Amino acid sequence: MDIMSLTSPHIRGLEAYEPPDWEALAARAGVSPDRLIRLDANENYYSPSPRVSEALARSEAYRFYPDYGPLKEAIARYAGASPEQIVLGNGGDEIIDLSIRLFVEPGEAVIVNPPAFGMYSVSAEAHHGKVLPVPRNRDFSLDLPAIEALVQGGAAARPKLLFVTSPGNPDGQSVPVETLLRLLKLPLAIIVDEAYVEFGGASAVPLLEDHDNLIVLRTFSKWAGIAGLRLGYAVTSPPIAQALERLRPPYNVNAAAVVAAMATFEDMDRVRSTLSTVITERERLRAALAELPGIEPLPSRANFVLCRLKVRTGRELAGALAETGILIRCFSAPALEDAVRITVGRPEQHDVLLAALRSILSGESPDPGLLSRATEPQPEGRRASVERRTRETEVSVTLELDGSGRYEIDTRLGFLDHMLAQIASHGLFDLTVRARGDLHVDEHHTVEDVAIVLGQALDRALGDRSGLVRMGHAYAPLDEALARVVVDLSGRPYAVIEACFETARIGAVGTDLLAHFMETLAFNARISLHAQVLYGRNDHHRAEALFKALGRALDAASRQDPRRSSVPSTKGVL
Known about the structure:
CATH topology of the largest domain: Aspartate Aminotransferase, domain 2
CATH superfamily of the largest domain: Type I PLP-dependent aspartate aminotransferase-like (Major domain)
Strand order of the largest sheet: 2-8-7-6-5-3-4
Radius of gyration: 27 Å
CATH architecture of the largest domain: 3-Layer(aba) Sandwich
Oligomer: single chain
Number of strands: 23
Structural class: alpha/beta
Helix content: 25-40%
Shape: globular
CATH class of the largest domain: Alpha Beta
Number of domains: 3
Largest sheet: 7 strands, mixed
């Protein structure tokens, strides 16, 4: 008996997903698989929160079927919904599959807007559905008249479900809310796939209040950096959520994914810092690509950049890079033959990519030693970039712990710039700070937000804090003034600041804000900070001595000691 004769005929025509053959790609480049620079799959190259690995190691939940209640409550708080609107999936792919099973009968159709995620079509065809493609315009906007014409009777199969991706893949552009509102008027179920929304897109979740036909699809794969644990979810109206729950297999999300997601939510300051780093590096990459001849990088609100090519095909350029061990995405669709998509990686990976591109575009062969610059072991967690935007301020900080004391600081507050320079030069940190705030009101928001962002950058740069000396102290004199600072990088925030000043202001900064700056820094960096001005007559000298001592104490505590394989603690928990 031919067992395949018993299988459904339409399944035989489907193409299975084939992951890349890393061994073959590495052999082609003459390197080992672990040395490939993989900028082709939109993965997150920055580690998830350290609390994830700690929670996974500690958990005893694996013996039992998981309880999804706390996770659904946490997701609801994060997404701005209620737990009754949340449906968990084994990755976003399962939510796609469940939604098609819910809405599309055999012979009915889904509308997709290519270029689009391939699983929309694969899942539809697997369930005897038809796929109605409505290609996007050259600028990747949706062809609304064509979609409306299909729904109004212009299709052989009745469309029931429409997939929209925002930010889009492979273009990275958000779909305007006006477009979504127009689509939501159609007699369709609308799935808005927000896999990349944390990198800068606007969410459609607020539209759920007035639109029962909306399903918002999210995933932990991209922003949280846990793609291998497979966790996605839908945010939708309670009636649709209840129907999806009837289709969802029991315990479809594994216990490890639940543990990792909960640990992620417990460390959102660090996660947001990582997102800021990815966004900052995306813009640096896009700016550098724009300077190369024949490459036009498009604006992106995702964790990748799509580039149009003027002098060669995407397949040609991707092939040339693959020969060196650098992987980017090219496309077979005619509309994208002149394009490549580059995932946002780490700075050292981008530096190698850009060097290889310069060689290839000038007709030369890339340096065979390029790859080692990005694949040699890099110190983890010693550099961080963080951005913060509020209605009052815009602040960006880049901090390199293993620096040489270089700094570029511009907060529009001269005395604050001077104090930050003391931290950098005496701590031997490379520090870049740029801040723009509502100084027409006063300096409070600017000083406070710079402390928040600098603290978050320090927390991110310290990584998991393994191998640190951990504690450090320093005295710093300046003429008649003397200050003392003691720090503990244990991860337990606390601050005791004893600094009295005779004058109300130094330059444009209120002296009362100096203690507030240090307290805010300590909280956001998760350090214990004790700082004292011991004596002095001149307030400028008192403050400067205090910030010099802070830089030196941080330098002493953040040094790495090869004898210490973890964060030293008799409690065993820090």
